[in-house]
Amino acid sequence: MLNTLSLRIKNPKLVIKANSIARQHHCGKATEIEIGNENKIISSVSCGYRKYTTGEYVSNAYRANFGWKNTYYQTAQCKVMVQIES
Prior knowledge:
33% strand, four-stranded mixed beta sheet
């Protein structure tokens, strides 16, 4: 298991680097940053509407026919591991 540190990063260089890594993998921007030994995406969730019961994504046609009773909006999330260069 990797020894990582997850905290609120305020260093602008690390935030820019993390957002750059996220954009390279088509994730937009990093919502969480971990310090580790390599630059990579740990996990990502795309934005869109989902069903409460199953968690699967739904189309606009589903929402138009069945309404908003069983759906919620999932915001995009991207967790990035950033390597600190010495």
